[in-house]
Amino acid sequence: MDPLLGLLIGIASLLAIWFGWRYFALRRRMAEFARMLRRLAEEQPRATSENDLPEIGLLAGAVTTLTKSFNLQYELLEAECSRLAAVLEQLTDGVLIADADGLIQFANPAAERQFGENLKENSVAKALRHHQLIEAWQKCQASGEMQIESVEISNRRQFLQLIIIPDQHAPGGTLLLVHDLTQIRRLEMVRRDFVSNISHEIRTPLASLKALTETLQDGAISDPQAADRFLSRISTEVDALTQMAQELLDLSRIESGQVDLDRKTITPKKLLASASERMRLQAERAGLSLEVECAPDLPAVYADGPRIEQVLVNLIHNAVKFTPPGGAVVLSAEVVSSVAAPGKPPDGEDVVRFAVRDSGVGIPVDDVPRIFERFYRVDKSRAGGGTGLGLSISRHLVESHGGRIWAESREGQGSTFYFTLPVLTAG
């Protein structure tokens, strides 16, 4: 064998052995790197050792940095999701997310309160259950444009507004936002009733004043008897307008908290006696008897006497107005447990319960819960003058003393108005 050829073969063998060793060493390193990557993904990232190849160390460091960045972004995303979930949980508006097939994928608690529980995977049509709302949702799916629909659900006395928005992240999907407008509509009705009632009440005395004035201008002022009669009627109409303006001012001040109560110790019997004396002449003119039933030894209350007397006068005035001649109005007071005051959880403390009972026309059962609302009047069965503010003023005054006011009545069988005041405790 040629010595040169043998040298070349030897060199080639050595190179082959060296490359083979490097190949198997690289494979071993790659296997270790793969195992390290699995640990990074499954557990915690770890630093490479000093014996690792420089390239592997750099790559492992980059992966470690990316993993840390990913974990940070994931934590931030989780925090954002938690905040969004908290907002959706507390949101008073209902939120529904539906897919292209119309199946609900998400519903917040407000939506479940409005449309029922377990809405997920139910159809939008089954949840909404109102043809106008369903048609608006279908129109949004067909056109890909936002739709807004407002409806009144008569069986639940609700006003709902539905806003349907196409889901940009899910073709065919929709986002449904449900606003409950019931309270807003109720306030609008109160405002309309106020404008209507005040307009009617002002128009009547103004028309009378104009007619009386024109009559005087046409010559009646020259007749002393006619002039006195017309001037007396003018004075009555002016008094009615003054009372109306005063009631509006009182209600506004009371509701805004601008009325300071001058509380003093006073007995229930003294309150009832004072109010009955103020209204006795009016009751006699109406052909009614006005009686007071109150034990003299009832415990005192700590109250603003003139304000509570105003409450009693308002209640007596209503009783006199709606009780036919020959009837009776009875004022009373007694000590009862707080459990006898509707609308307030019983606390075991005693209260003085005042009552104004009449034998008048009564109040329809459907109207009883609303008679203390501002400007509300039972027009069908209790036709008469007034703005409907007296009972609202009375409610605010009683509640400002820490008491409650309510009514019990049956149409045609009279009414009883109650209110309570806390008993004055020693010390």
CATH architecture of the largest domain: 2-Layer Sandwich
Number of strands: 12
Mean pLDDT comes to 78
The fraction of residues assigned to DSSP E strands is 15-25%
Q: If you compute it from the alpha carbons, what radius of gyration comes out, rounded to the nearest whole angstrom? A: 41 Å
Largest sheet features: 5 strands, antiparallel
> What percent of residues adopt helix (DSSP H or I)?
40-55%
What does this molecule look like?
- With 427 residues, the chain is an alpha+beta fold.
- It folds into four domains: 17-87, no CATH class; 91-180, Beta-Lactamase (2-Layer Sandwich); 186-255, Helix Hairpins (Orthogonal Bundle), CATH 1.10.287.130; 264-422, Histidine kinase-like ATPase, C-terminal domain (Heat Shock Protein 90, 2-Layer Sandwich).
- It is built from ten helices and twelve strands.
- Helix 1 (3-42) packs parallel to helix 2 (54-90).
- The radius of gyration is 41 Å and the shape is elongated.
- It starts with a helix and ends in a 5-residue tail after the last strand.
Main features:
elongated; 12 strands; five-stranded antiparallel β-sheet; five-stranded mixed β-sheet; Helix Hairpins; 4 domains; 427 residues; alpha+beta; single chain; Beta-Lactamase; 10 helices
